[in-house]
Amino acid sequence: MINGEGGLLERGLIACHCLAIETGDGLVLVDTGFGMEDARNPGQLGAYRHLMNPQVRAETTALAQLEALDFGAGDVRQIVTTHLDLDHSGGLPDFPEAEVHVLAVELEAALHPALREKARYVGAHWRHDPRWVTHGDGGDEWFGFESLRILPGIDAEILLVPLLGHTRGHTGVAVKTGDGWLLHCGDAYFNHGEMATPPSCPPALSFFQNLTASDNAARKANRDRLRELASRHGDEVTLVCGHDPHELEREQDRASVAATAE
Ligand SMILES: [Zn+2]
User: Fold this and answer.
1) Ligand 1 centroid – CA 262 distance (Å)
2) 139, pLDDT greater than 90
3) 3-state DSSP call for residue 59?
């Protein structure tokens, strides 16, 4: 129902896929997953905890994984968030010095949620008063999408590609890599099958996405545009989303092959 394989009653698996980008000016983190305080105090995640049963452990936080690579919290100078849902923003307090880039409309939603949005945001994730950097709509064109170049001062090319629908201010994040672009699509889709032609999606994930979208028509339209991008420009752009464990494993394999080749 969740992964499209395994038994009907088998527990499904969902990942939190973050990116860490090494630049000449420290690390840029794209999304943060859950954080240390979520692991210490999972009760702060509210009803979501009972619905999704997240396995929040200190050793799988972005901070712990970076420390295992000999980085420290202070090395993360910039965080770019696809959106501020609790499963993407929990690590913000672990990097209190970082600037946090977000679409202005998303920050507005998170700080002043409507009644139906309240369960998705956790105020404890920004109690430390992050150094927000808000961005408006895109200005440039990127493979037919609106885009916005951020962090012009650093040597990595990083664009926001607004993909509204899952939340009010949801955005993709495009990163120029050695061989093309990597587009982190956040929660614009949940399963790699949605980017295939013809598309497919495990039923529980379809249900969940319809249920949680702030604008479901916009969400579906953007998902379909992404599928078209994958089919027309799949050789130049690699798509990953926030929660597909299959994509996470694929990209981890690719990264370790690249590291071995260096
Ligand atoms: Zn999510």
Assistant:
1) 33
2) no
3) helix
